UniProtKB/TrEMBL annotation, chain A:
GO cellular-component term (any): outer membrane-bounded periplasmic space
Gene: yfkN_1
Highest classification ranks of the organism: Bacteria, Pseudomonadati, Pseudomonadota, Alphaproteobacteria, Rhodobacterales
Name of this protein: Trifunctional nucleotide phosphoesterase protein YfkN
Protein family per UniProt: Belongs to the 5'-nucleotidase family.
InterPro entries: 5'-Nucleotdase_C, 5'-Nucleotdase_C_sf, 5_nucleotidase/apyrase, Calcineurin-like_PHP, Metallo-depent_PP-like, SoxB_N, TAT_signal, Thiosulf_SoxB
Biological processes, Gene Ontology terms: nucleotide catabolic process
One example GO MF annotation: hydrolase activity
5'-Nucleotidase C-terminal domain segment(s): 396-535
Keyword DNA repair: no
Keyword terms, alphabetized: Hydrolase, Nucleotide-binding, Signal
Domain Calcineurin-like phosphoesterase: residue ranges: 51-307
Automatic annotation (TrEMBL), chain B:
One Pfam family in the UniProt entry: SoxY
Keywords in alphabetical order: Signal
Protein name: Sulfur oxidation protein SoxY
Domain Ig-like SoxY: start-end pairs: 35-137
Signal sequence range: 1-27
Length: 565, 139
C-alpha cells in the first residue's frame, strides 16, 4: 500500500480527503462507551453517486462473533502491504486506539475481552438498517453484492440457497457476482439466476464448451444515477473449477481474463460510461494486479479474501474497496463524477455492531420466516467450549484444530486435513456450541469426510501445492484461501521458497517421527473436490466428537513453523 | 474402516507427483524446435499476443489463443510436454487476420511459447506460464 500521506495527496479533490478516515474519532467515542447508531452512520453525503458494497456474507443472517486474523502474510510485492498487516501493526497503520471499537471490528488481539464489551456483529436485518439509512440520504444509491452469499449455513444448505435469495431480495440489490453460489450445482444456480430481480454479472463467466461468454451472466450493466452513466462490470471468482468441485458446474469456465476485462471497459467507455465500477470476487491482491494492468476502471469493489480495510487502496487511478465478510461490514463510497470522470470520493467502512444498530423490522421478519421451520435443529446445544473457537489465519485456527481432532478420533486416522477456507464465525469461551454453530463452519454441498491412504511423499506434494496457491509471488497464481490445516502433522514452511521446496521437517506428531516419503499413512479429511467422494458429512463427525467431549478445550497449536515472514 | 476414496486417489497420485514442479525435462526439445523454426534469429518481445489461463481448469484441454498481425506463420510449443510441438499455423497473403485459437494438453505446470514469423522474415515471441494444480480451497 502507498503510505497514508501519499494516498491523501493523491486524492483527486480536496473535498475527498475529508472522508478518508474517521477511525481515530471512533476510538475515542468507543472508549467512552458512547458508540451509537448515529455515529456509525455519520457521513456527509458527497458528490453525486453513492455505492453500497456488501460481500462474502456466507449466509450469516444473524449476528455473530468474528475474529479477524492475526497472521495474514503477503509475498512478493505484497509483503508487508495491506491487507497483509495484522494486529497492533494494523492499528498503528490506521491510527486506531487499542481497545477501541475499531480495534475490535478490524483487527485481532484481546478478542475475548473486546467481544464481551462490544458484543456481536452483523445480521442482515442490521445491514438493512444501514442500507436504508444511506438510501434515505441518497435514494438512488447502488447496492452491489460481491458474492459468496448463497453459501455457509444450515438453512442455506437445507433450502439450497433460497433463504439467502429471499432475504437479499428484500434488501433490493442492483447487481451481484459469484463464487460459492456455483457449488449449489449449475442447475440450481441457473434456476435462481433466471428469476433474480437484479443483474447477475460476470465478464469472466464463460461457456466451457465453446469458451464464449455465458449468456445467463452478462459482463456488465448500465445504471443512470445522479445524472451519471455508470457501468458495473462483474468479475466472478476466477478459479472456481479448481478451488471448488468443477464437476458440479461443468458447463462453465472462468479465469481472470484481464484482456476481456479491458475489452469490456473499453466497450462501456465507448458507450458513454462516465464511471466504471468493477464488482469483483478476485481477492485483494489479484484486484491490485488487475488494476495495474487494465486501464479505465474507477472503482473496484473487492471480495473473496475477506479483508476489511478502513481506507481504499489506490492503484494508478483506480480505488479498491475491501468490505470484510460474514455480514460484519457495509462499505459506503460517495463519488463526485463530473465531465465524464471521477473527480473525488469519500468512503466509510461501516462495522455492523449488532447491539448498537437497530434491526430493520421488515427484514428481521423475512429472516425469521426462513429460519422458523428449522429452529429445533438450529438451536440444539451440542456442547460447550472453554476456548475461543475461530478460523481465520494463514496456518491454523482453533475451529479447524477441533475439526481435525474430530476427524482423527472419529475416523481413526494418523493425520487430518481441513481446507483453508476463510468463512465461519467465532465462538467465545464459555459459550454453548449449537448445531447451527457447527454448520456455520462446515456447511457445504461437498462436505463428505473421506478417509484414505497417502504416502509421505504424496502428502508433501499436497502441502506444496496448496502452499503455492497462497504464497506464489504472482497474485494471478493465487487462489485465495489459507493453508490447508493439518491435525497430527507438524511441518516447517519457508514462504519465500518456490513450489516444491517450501515444506520441510514433516513430522507425525503422535510419535514425533519424521514423515517417511515411502511409508503409507491413514489420512482423514473433508471437502474433496473429487466427484464420488464417500464418507459421513463433516458436520455429523464434528457433532459426534463434541458430544463426547461435553466441553471442548483446544490447546495452543505450535505444529507449524513459519520461516520467511 | 472401509477405504472409499483409495482408487480415485491412487489414480490421482501419479498425476499429482508429475505436477508438483514446473516441467522442463524436455525443454531441450522445445529449444531445438525454436532453433529449427527461427534458424537461430533474434526474437522480438512485442508483435504477438498469447492468451492462456494462468491456472488451467483442466490440464487435458487448455484453451489458448495466438494473435500476431502481419505474421505468415505462428509456432506454438508446450515446453514441458514430452513432445513440445503443438501446432504451426500458416496464414496466406489474403488471410483477414493472423490469429488462431485451439486447446492443448499440458502434462503439468510449464511455459507455453508462441513464435510468429513475420512477412518480413523477422520473429516475435510470447510466453505464458500455465499452472496445472490439484486445486486448493476457496475463500
Amino acid at each position: 500500500m502507498i503510505s497514508r500521506r501519499d494516498f491523501l495527496q493523491t486524492s483527486m479533490a480536496a473535498s475527498a480527503i475529508l472522508g478518508a478516515s474517521s477511525y481515530g474519532q471512533w476510538g475515542r467515542l468507543a472508549a467512552q462507551q458512547a458508540l451509537t447508531q448515529d455515529q456509525l452512520l455519520q457521513f456527509d453525503t458527497f458528490g453525486n453517486v453513492s455505492l453500497i458494497h456488501v460481500t462474502d456474507i456466507h449466509a450469516q443472517l444473524k449476528p455473530i462473533y468474528f475474529r479477524e486474523p492475526s497472521i495474514n502474510l503477503g509475498v512478493g510485492d505484497n509483503k508487508g502491504q495491506v491487507p497483509h498487516v495484522t494486529g497492533a501493526d494494523f492499528r498503528k497503520l490506521y491510527g486506531i486506539d487499542d481497545g477501541s471499537a475499531s480495534h475490535y471490528a478490524l483487527s485481532a488481539g484481546d478478542f475475548n475481552a473486546l467481544a464481551q464489551a462490544y458484543g456481536r456483529v452483523g445480521g442482515l436485518d442490521r445491514m438493512a438498517t444501514v442500507i436504508n439509512a444511506i438510501r434515505a440520504e441518497r435514494p438512488d444509491a447502488l447496492l452491489l453484492d460481491g458474492g459468496d452469499t448463497w453459501h455457509g449455513s444450515y438453512t442455506c444448505y437445507q433450502t439450497e440457497g433460497q433463504d439467502m435469495v429471499n432475504v437479499m431480495n428484500a434488501l433490493k440489490p442492483d447487481a451481484m457476482t459469484f463464487h460459492w453460489e456455483f457449488t449449489l450445482g449449475s442447475d440450481r444456480v441457473n434456476e435462481i439466476v433466471a428469476g433474480l430481480p437484479f443483474a447477475a454479472l460476470g465478464q469472466n463467466i464463460f461457456d466451457a464448451e465453446w469458451d464464449e461468454p455465458a449468456e445467463l451472466f452478462p459482463p456488465y450493466k448500465f445504471f443512470e444515477r445522479g445524472g451519471v452513466k455508470i457501468a458495473v462490470i462483474g468479475q466472478a471468482f476466477p478459479y472456481m473449477p479448481i478451488a471448488n468441485p468443477g464437476w458440479m458446474f461443468p458447463e462453465y469456465a472462468f479465469g481472470i481474463r484481464d484482456e476481456n476485462m479491458q475489452e469490456m471497459v473499453d466497450e462501456v467507455r465507448g458507450q458513454g460510461a462516465e464511471l466504471v465500477v468493477v464488482l469483483s470476487h478476485n481477492g485483494f491482491d489479484v484486484d491490485k494486479k488487475m488494476a495495474s494492468i487494465v486501464t479505465g476502471i474507477d472503482v473496484i469493489l473487492s471480495g473473496h479474501t475477506h479483508d476489511a480495510l478502513p481506507e481504499p487502496v489506490l492503484v494508478g487511478e483506480t480505488i479498491i474497496i475491501a468490505s470484510g465478510s460474514n455480514g460484519k461490514f457495509v462499505s459506503r463510497v460517495d463519488l463526485d463524477v463530473r465531465d465524464g470522470r471521477m473527480m473525488g470520493f469519500r468512503h466509510k467502512l461501516i462495522p455492523i455492531f449488532s447491539d448498537v444498530i437497530e434491526p430493520d423490522a421488515e427484514v428481521a421478519a423475512v429472516i425469521d420466516e426462513q429460519r422458523a421451520p428449522y429452529m429445533d435443529q438450529l438451536t440444539e446445544v451440542i456442547g460447550q467450549t472453554d476456548s475461543l473457537l475461530y478460523r481465520r489465519g494463514n496456518f491454523n485456527g482453533t475451529w479447524d484444530d477441533l475439526i481435525c481432532d474430530a476427524l482423527i478420533s472419529e475416523r481413526e486416522a494418523d493425520i487430518a486435513l481441513s481446507p483453508g477456507v476463510r468463512w465461519g464465525p467465532s465462538i467465545l469461551p464459555g459459550q454453548d456450541i449449537t448445531r447451527e454453530d457447527i454448520w456455520n463452519v462446515t456447511s457445504m454441498t461437498y462436505g463428505q469426510a473421506y478417509r484414505t491412504e497417502m504416502t509421505g511423499e504424496f502428502l508433501g506434494v499436497v502441502l506444496e501445492d496448496v502452499a503455492d496457491n497462497l504464497f506464489n509471488p504472482d497474485p494471478y497464481y493465487q487462489q485465495g484461501g489459507d493453508m490447508v490445516r493439518t491435525g497430527g502433522l507438524g511441518y516447517r514452511i519457508d514462504i519465500t521458497k518456490p513450489q516444491g521446496s517450501r515444506i520441510t521437517e514433516m513430522t507425525l506428531l503422535k510419535t514425533g517421527e519424521a514423515i517417511d516419503p515411502a511409508k503409507t499413512y491413514q489420512i482423514a479429511g473433508w471437502a474433496s473436490v473429487n466427484e464420488g467422494t464417500e464418507g459421513p458429512q463433516i458436520w455429523d463427525v464434528v457433532e459426534s466428537h463434541i458430544r463426547k467431549q461435553g466441553t471442548v478445550t483446544v490447546k495452543p497449536n505450535t505444529s507449524v513453523k513459519v520461516v520467511g515472514a | 474402516m472401509k477405504l472409499t476414496r483409495r482408487d480415485a486417489l491412487v489414480v490421482g497420485a501419479g498425476a499429482f507427483v508429475a505436477l508438483g514442479l514446473p516441467l522442463s525435462a524436455s525443454a531441450g526439445l522445445g529449444e531445438d524446435a525454436i532453433a529449427a523454426f527461427t534458424g537461430g534469429a533474434e526474437m522480438a518481445d512485442g508483435g504477438i499476443t498469447l492468451t492462456a489461463p494462468e491456472i488451467a481448469e483442466n490440464g487435458n484441454t487448455v484453451p489458448i489463443e495466438v494473435d500476431a498481425p502481419g505474421a505468415s506463420e505462428i509456432l506454438v510449443l508446450a515446453m514441458g510436454n514430452p513432445t513440445p510441438s503443438v501446432a504451426t499455423f500458416k496464414f496466406g497473403p489474403l488471410a483477414a487476420s493472423q490469429a488462431a485459437s485451439t486447446r492443448i494438453r499440458l502434462a503439468g505446470t510449464q511455459d507455453v511459447v508462441a513464435i510468429a514469423k513475420m512477412a518480413d522474415g523477422s520473429f516475435a515471441k510470447a510466453s505464458a506460464t500455465v499452472k496445472v494444480t490439484i486445486g486448493g480451497c476457496g475463500g
